[in-house]
Amino acid sequence: MFLVEKANLSSHFRSTTKKASHVPKTYQLAARSFDEKVILHLKTLDLTSSSSNISLSWLSVAVSFLSTIHTEAEEQIIQISDLKSEADDYQALYMDYSMKVLDLCNLISSAVHRLTDRRLLMNFSLRLLKITDQMPPIEKLNKAKDAIARSVNDAEQPAKEKGLRAKALIGELAELIRKLPRGNASDRRDLIRHTFNTIGVLTVIIGSILVNVLFGETDRTGKLRVLAESLFSDAVNGVQPQIVDLIKPKQNTILEIDNVSRQAVVVGELLQAVISDAVGNADGRLQLEAGVKELASSLKEFSDGVDGLTNGVNVLFRTVLKTRNGRLDMLLASG
Q1: What is the 3-state secondary structure (H, E, C) of the chain?
Q2: pLDDT in tens, 30-64
């Protein structure tokens, strides 16, 4: 759920003519209203000027933004059935689109699941390194060091096959959206097209970011620009370069992951020093205690970010599935 400012935008479609002449403009107003809602929700994606990395918390907000936009669009998308046979092409496009989005959600979930595996390894190491009156036995220190090493090495081995499939899906979604006709919303069909184009383009943009940072796929296949006819086009096309700068090739690090990984390496080195007795017992213990404390703090932020992103992707999946199932129910009922 978002807390957003109430829109205070004047309408260009006011008229003093008879009510009957307002019918075409009803759809233009509906399209404008939808665009204004998108503008308000886009404010949640603002990045601070000091941002140097995309964060898990920002990714969570971005996915939640997509869920909200799909929810806002649901009422207009379900009107496809009212167009009867004229809408067969839209029916097929939406079914194809929604299935690809659901597949993309599953792939992103698999990437996030790998982060939860890393969290388990780090939590395991912290339990082994719980220092009371005396240093843990050497066996526990070795197990903790191995668990930390595995958690760090896992970050360097992304799931290539799934990453390539996710990248391909972004391209397929972009190509599908390009098939939609252009123009203002002068009737119900145009309103559906406008809404469909909006959620599709925003899904490609946010999806590309998720694929880039979670799978390390740096090619920006499927990049789309928002149509100039959309009120929010300048806002989206303006924020894209800022985001792209944060996910340049070889710089696809995520803030919380980067922080916890660096601290895990530090603790791993301290453990090796203690195990090898490279420093005095007293100094080694103090340094290790401080390092473990820092790791626990970084892991807390990392864990919160993973949970937030997991929940966000699950909500998006359920939102798209709900609309898709609604379309299927209508098709079955009309058949």
Answers
A1: CCCCCCCCCCCCCCCCCCHHHHHHHHHHHHHHHHHHHHHHHHHHHCCCCCCCCECHHHHHHHHHHHHHHHHHHHHHHHHHHHHHHHHHHHHHHHHHHHHHHHHHHHHHHHHHHHHHHHHHHHHHHHHHCCCCCCCCCHHHHHHHHHHHHHHHHHHCCCCHHHHHHHHHHHHHHHHHHHCCCCCCCCCHHHHHHHHHHHHHHHHHHHHHHHHHHHHCCCCCCCCCCCCCCCCCHHHHHHHHHHHHHHCCCCCCCEHHHHHHHHHHHHHHHHHHHHHCCCCCHHHHHHHHHHHHHHHHHHHHHHHHHHHHHHHHHHHHHHHHHHHHHHHHHHHHHHC
A2: 888 888 888 888 888 877 655 667 899 999 999 99
Q: Where are the domains of the chain?
A: 23-334
Q: Do the Cβ atoms of 326 and 95 come closer than 8 Å?
A: no
Any residues with CB less than 8 A from the CB of 63 and at least 6 apart, and which? 206, 210, 309, 312, 313, 315, 316
pLDDT in tens, 153-185: 865 555 788 889 999 999 999 999 888 776 666
Distance (Å, whole) CA 233 – CA 181: 17
301 near 100, Cβ under 8 Å?
no
Report d(CA 132, CA 127) in Å as an integer.
Answer: 12
Residues contacting residue 220 through CB under 8 Å, at least 6 positions apart: 208, 212, 244
Q: Considering just the CA atoms, what is the radius of gyration of the chain in Å?
A: 25
